[in-house]
């Protein structure tokens, strides 16, 4: 992006997630520990870390669903809670199962749209985009996990936001769905959006993301491009294993 001297600050910070010494403590647990990094537009940024590393907590803090103990998380230069029309600036899929099972997919999205000043045409558009148009009038309670993931993605896209976050969106998806997510993430990024994506599937992440942020025990471990990591290690998985070796809290039983 070319920065001109007369650009207003909001333009410069457009489509950026910025963490500044973000910290969250739950009792004795330091879930996020002085985390600072920036997520830029135009490519997918993978957010990696062992179980309990603080990825979901970080995303919740960015979305104002929880308050930081100290530090701050900014979207487009502002805290989420001070954005007047948040769905139009940032969309997220955190927990696909957190939907009212008695509602149809269409009604679920329509309620969200109405409370955010978004018209019904957009509901039809996102249902089409995620491949749920044919089941729009079916109750969400009967949806498979993969269909719920698609509905969660439709909710995130509803406000056509420039910043998107997805917490393990490929969970429960069949190979066709996994490829669909990969293509969707890449095309959203190619449109100039900022995409933060968490997943434990390293091979998939290597195909989807261009930049990687790795956290462990709430702290930043590494920030690099996939190309940099795979130049230093045999694969992204090897890089991840080596870099997080001292941060795994819940190792597999042997
Ligand atoms: N509401 C909460 N109350 C107490 N502790 C919490 C809460 N939310 C998260 N934690 C703790 O904070 C730490 C980070 O959890 P978080 O869910 O953010 O990790 P994660 O990286 O998303 O893990 P996973 O890969 O398993 O989803 C964990 O030790 C977790 O138990």
UniProtKB/TrEMBL annotation:
The keyword ATP-binding applies. Gene3D superfamilies: P-loop containing nucleotide triphosphate hydrolases. Pfam families: ABC_tran. Transmembrane segments: none annotated. Residues 17-242 form the ABC transporter domain. Keywords: ATP-binding, Nucleotide-binding, Transport. Belongs to the ABC transporter superfamily. This is ABC transporter domain-containing protein. It comes from Nonomuraea rosea.
């Amino acid at each position: 992006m070319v920065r001109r001297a007369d650009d207003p600050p909001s333009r410069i910070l457009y489509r950026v997630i910025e963490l500044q010494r973000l910290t969250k403590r739950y009792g004795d647990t330091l879930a996020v520990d002085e985390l600072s990094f920036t997520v830029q537009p135009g490519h997918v940024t993978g957010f990696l870390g062992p179980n309990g590393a603080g990825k979901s907590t970080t995303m919740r803090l960015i979305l104002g669903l929880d308050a930081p103990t100290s530090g701050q998380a900014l979207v487009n230069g502002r805290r989420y809670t001070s954005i007047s029309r948040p769905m139009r600036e940032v969309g997220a899929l955190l927990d696909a199962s957190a939907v009212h099972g008695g509602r149809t997919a269409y009604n679920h999205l329509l309620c969200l749209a109405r409370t955010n000043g978004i018209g019904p045409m957009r509901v039809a558009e996102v249902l089409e985009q995620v491949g749920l148009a044919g089941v729009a009038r079916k109750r969400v309670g009967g949806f498979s996990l993969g269909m719920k993931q698609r509905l969660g993605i439709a909710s995130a896209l509803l406000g056509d936001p420039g910043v998107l976050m997805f917490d393990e969106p490929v969970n429960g998806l069949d190979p066709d769905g996994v490829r669909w997510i990969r293509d969707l993430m890449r095309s959203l990024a190619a449109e100039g959006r900022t995409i933060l994506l968490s997943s434990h599937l390293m091979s998939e992440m290597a195909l989807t993301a261009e930049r990687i942020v790795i956290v462990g025990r709430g702290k930043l471990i590494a920030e690099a491009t996939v190309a940099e990591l795979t130049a230093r290690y045999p694969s992204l998985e090897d890089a991840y294993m080596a870099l997080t070796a001292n941060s795994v809290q819940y190792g597999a039983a042997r």
